[in-house]
Known about the structure:
This protein is of the alpha/beta class.
Amino acid sequence: MNRQNTMPPNYFGGPRGVLPLLLLLFAGSGFAALIYEIVWFQLLQFVIGSTAVSLAVLLGTYMLGMCLGSILLPRFVPNDRNPLRTCAWLEIAIGILGAIVLYAIPYVGRCYITTAGHGSSGILISGALCALCLLPPTLCMGATLPAISRYVQSTPQGVCWLGLLYGGNILGAVLGCLVSGFYLLRVYDMPTATSVAIAINGMVALIGFSLAPRISFQPEQHSLKGIQNAPGSSWIYLSIALSGFCALGAEVIWTRLLSLLLGPTVYTFSIVLAVFLIGLGMGSSIGSLVGRAIMRPKLALGVCQILLMAAIGWTAYALACSLPYWPVMPMISTSPWFNFQIDVVRCTWAILPATVLWGASFPLALAAAASQGQDPGYLVGKVYAANTFGAIIGAIGTSLILIGWLGTQGSQQVLVGASGVAALLAFVPAYNTGVTRIGSFNGRFTGFLIFCGVVIFGVLLVCQLPRIPWQLIADGRYVAMGVRTYDRQVLCVGEGVNASVAVMEDNGGVRTLCINGRVNGTSSPLNVRMLGHLPALLHHHPQSVLVVGCGTGIAAGSFVPYPEVGKIEICEIERMMPEMAAPFFSRENYDVIKDPRVQIIYDDARHYISTTKEKFDIITSHTFDPWVKGTGGLYTREYFELCKQHLNPGGIVAQWLPFYVTNSAVIKNELATFFSVFTNGVIWGTGGQGEGYDLVVTGSAEPLNINVNELQQQLDRNPAVAQSLREVGLRSAIDLLSTYMGQRSDLEPWWRQSKINRDANLRFQYLAGMTAYSQEHLAINNELLPYRRYPENLFSGSDKNKQMLKEILNGTKSQNSP
């Protein structure tokens, strides 16, 4: 160790042998931080919902804590404190706060539910909740880089060492993202993942405490308390803030577009985030090497932003004109791991160049803003805070404003322009000092030429950025397979705040609604009407209805023919559904959007049910497919308990569950979870004699008794309802009840080994995401059929009708027999 301490520092305040250890420690810190981030995001989504608004508030609050931490540490922690010991204490604080947050969020959520509302007031309350939960630990996370930076010398070459530490931290975050997304949360649960992160914080702290006394640390003497700035540094702060704006804005846009291409599963989001972080880590390391080797880091930062303009253009081209037409057929293999490998390649091809350049921008900005005599902690804190503040604006502004206003094409055009402005800002100090020269021309004239060149380049790029093809919005990951090559015309296409929507019509006049690259409904209503008619007829006299998800409006429209229904509330996450898409299906949905009984609530369904004081006779749900990220919270035991609490006496819940792109383990998990709350639940197929493509599951607090005769009388008294059922092939009460597939007492042996889907594990979305390439609906149907038998305790009525239904359900009589 003594020999180490005598080695020349080469701009690094500690001995050279320390750097690999610091890289390892910072990688561990980043590993734990990403586990926390993913766990906290999932926890808070249960409380404030998973709309773009709530997630933007959530992300903004998270990054605000990082920003404040980077600013506050150098102001409150003296620069003569040992950096390793400071970081070790910060890691202990993060671990303690991480454990507190895990258990505090559910408690705070219960308090939030009693005061929260909708609209702007709800957003403000959710923002306050996020701040209350996330600011303490994220403040500590944001303080670690400024703390460790005091090991470096406050020169452009010295501070560039921090690029390596920053890169190590990011690469550790990559590992944390993948381990948590693909293993810890898939196999275990959020408490287990949090425990792993806490253990890593503890290990990092112990190693830091043990190394601190062995490594010599001589703080530099700083005048003016280390608050002096390098000439022109204000322009550098603005430039790196714009770079952060573009980086997080691009992450929002590209994650959305790649989720169309790859399928919006939890694994896709993990892959995109991991590739994004890999690029940032690589770029930070490269920028660190470049910054130490060059004498004009301001010019290098400006050039980096110009290259980013081209890189954003490349990604826009790859996502719109290249990747959708790669000959990739995900149905060739049902193994998700093979498809994940292809997904990583496609993500890397599209977004890696830009992310490397954004990663390089940070150490170059440090070098550009550095001057001899500064406190390195103060310098790093300001640059990091500026970058993070820009990232906050980019994440929130892109999510809530740009995409809904300009679409993804216009949003990427804004990013190109912002990168051009960032480049010009980085060049300003060189213009002012006359440093930049081309031949015999002085710096200011050179600056004018550069300004004109950047503007012209930016305008040309903006004009050439392609629009996302409507086929990608319609067909998603199957766009290159040619499975939907039939003739069709686009009736409307749009990109909303929460979803991308397309409505098409084929030569036969059948209209199809596609949301985020998957079919959500067609003008052939088929089984969707069962989501309305089944609970309405079983209830006998419903007066208030809540429909989760609008889509084509057919499920909600099924309640229109019931005159006794006085209120139909539709909870929809995306405004384009009722405003743009549903009117194209007005004949099939009975023009439900214009019905005076209808009230549309724009909110996350779970958030609305948690915060509303109303109760309903029927709650029916036609949500996104279970494998879509964000829907897992609508299939947990806690969610079904919420629904049960919001039912009036005799109320019924109806839940849609698809058989396609899944396997029996997913169906077992959902049914076991549903029946753990609704012990009187009943499963219904979507076709006669058990031949279905999906299920409708109904549940009630009280046992059902279905009188076949009375049900037929209801149909006879209401010709509109009878006609609606005939349009989907159900001509009588016998036909409707013949879709019966089973109840808990019959089917419980089938799912006995399945675990319950809870908020703490969200097992369902991870199971469903792994089986999103499966086509096992026939096999699942065949597994269910042996458990299908006539329920003596459920049906009543005339002996003739009961006997007929019994023969159909037991398979001894055809449904079409007289």
